[in-house]
């Protein structure tokens, strides 16, 4: 497995270089200390393990103006969690993000970003395959915006993402017996954007490409999608976007290939009816990587809704819901899988609610609840439900 410390040193070195050369900095710090209860820490329907926990989450962010044409955004979130009745008892996770924006000229604008994660997998992984579902993920992205005229511009981007699991047998291992869930993924996209109505409507013509390869000779998939889109400012309080098209995919199962076509959809809406209320939602449909060791791809539909309400100047309430419906075609099954081969559907729902009370300028009391459930129509994939409660204190500087 790749060395997590090496990734952290590279990322922190980048942060230090940018900060050292900065002309102006805005730094924000938050610390969350929470005590809670998890009734299914390993996300399995068999032999559920519950535990109390204490967690400390630090948020450190900085906006750095390096020059009149260059700025950077930095974000670091380490988490340290002690679980009284789980193995291991003490776990730690990392989330580090850095973005550099640079105006090359009046027409050309470049963005480079890198996101590093080390965390526990929630949701649709192979539940019960291993109690250690921790993984390292790094995503490097780059994009260029080039203005053609006062009405139009072109965006071109590319990215490289990798994931490495702590558990060697799950991430790598022998092709016939191991999970081979480690992967590398390359993406590319291009779009032409034109103002159809000044400050209100933009039309978009675009395409994206994904090539995804799992560890060893397990296979993966390639996908090309073409789409038409629109970004719309309905009024100062409502904005929306939509991308509609079609994708063409080639799923490599190890020694065989399966061609498929499917709709492509991405849409979102942000609504701020008052200064105290925020509502947002998104919906999508696309070919996506499999979240298990059996299939190499999925046709995925996802829906997300979120809301925040400042009830008073000191009390706020936030809630969210996400729903993912995964459709696994039997033809997407990896060749080395020796079990029953069949189509499968998988539904994953997460509901969360968090309340906050501002004690004074810098201190907050918080309480949260999250419910997650996974349902499938096959014995190939595991089902479970999970409840997590917590209360805590947040310091903001």
Overview of the structural elements:
The protein is mostly beta strands and 397 residues long. The protein has helices at 4-20, 168-171, and strands at residues 24-38, 51-67, 70-83, 90-103, 108-120, 134-147, 152-165, 183-197, 201-214, 220-235, 238-252, 257-274, 277-288, 298-310, 315-328, 344-358, 363-376, 384-396. The chain is built from two helices and 18 strands. It has an 18-stranded antiparallel barrel. The longest helix is centred in the N-terminal third of the chain and has 17 residues, at 4-20.
Key terms:
397 residues, globular, mainly beta, 18-stranded antiparallel β-barrel
Percentage of helical residues? under 10%
Tell me, rounded to a whole number, the average pLDDT: 90
Strand coverage percent = over 45%
Coarse shape = globular
Termini separation: 37 Å
Unreliable stretches: none
The helix/strand series, from N terminus to C terminus, equals HEEEEEEEHEEEEEEEEEEE
Radius of gyration, taken over Cα atoms and rounded to an integer in Å: 22 Å
How many individual helices? 2
User: Main β-sheet: number of strands, strand sense, barrel status?
Assistant: 18 strands, antiparallel, barrel
Structural class by secondary-structure content:
mainly beta
Strand segment tally: 18
